[in-house]
Write a structure and sequence with these properties.
The protein has about 210 residues and is an all-alpha fold. It contains seven helices and no strands. The structure holds zinc ion (ZN). Zinc ion (ZN) binds next to loops.
Length: about 210
């Protein structure tokens, strides 16, 4: 690897060139070889592929309909069309596959790139975050994806040597979201405790 200013050899993890003292620019933000751009392309590719597969499934179903031609002529065959259910299917599969891609992302060694990836992962975590109350089976895959992003940003932070600044409450919420039975168990207990307190107070005033 060479410095982009003086062309002297530099290491992949260097931020400043030891020869000329200038900042080493590995990639311009619009560089097609930039790891984040490549990553974004891969994530987009996943969605495109899933859509194609589902469309192919619909087409296949429609051509293999028994009374295909006759039905077409008389308009009695219900041809399957792309609808909200397919859209939901796409979303769920994309969440699942993207979570896998994020989990398998290999972090670079250069600190500047690491910071960019950390920010990229944090943004995506925020975008896909599932709130405490929306967490359920229907959001299982989305939760998986958001946690994959969170994990990636934490890995980048670790590599950069940044102390994890997440609060205890935050960690607990994430933990409970991963363990939905425990979460609902605690909520039920909390409701019982609250009821018990209310009844005790009522009894106290009645006497
Ligand atoms: Zn240089």
């Amino acid at each position: 690897m060479k410095c982009n200013h003086c062309k002297n050899p530099v290491k992949a993890q260097d931020v400043i060139c030891e020869w000329c003292g200038r900042e080493i620019t590995l990639f311009q933000s619009n560089d097609i070889n930039h790891p984040i751009n490549n990553f974004e392309d891969e994530l987009r590719e996943i969605e495109i592929t899933v859509r194609k597969e589902i469309q192919a499934r619909i087409d296949n179903k429609n051509t293999n309909t028994k009374e295909g031609l006759i039905g077409k002529i008389f308009g009695t065959t219900n041809f399957e069309e792309w609808d909200e259910d397919h859209e939901e299917d796409v979303r769920q599969q994309v969440y699942k596959l993207q979570a896998k891609a994020v989990a398998n992302f290999v972090l670079p060694t250069n600190p500047k790139l690491l910071i960019e990836i950390k920010e990229f992962a944090e943004n995506n975590y925020r975008l896909n975050k599932v709130s405490f109350w929306d967490e359920g089976d229907e959001n299982k895959n989305k939760l998986q994806l958001s946690l994959a992003w969170l994990h990636l940003s934490n890995m980048a932070k670790n590599k950069l040597g940044i102390e994890n600044s997440r609060s205890t409450v935050n960690i607990m919420v994430t933990y409970l979201n991963k363990n939905s039975n425990l979460k609902w168990g605690l909520i039920v207990i909390a409701v019982y405790v609250l009821l018990f307190v209310i009844i005790s107070i009522l009894n106290y005033f009645q006497e």
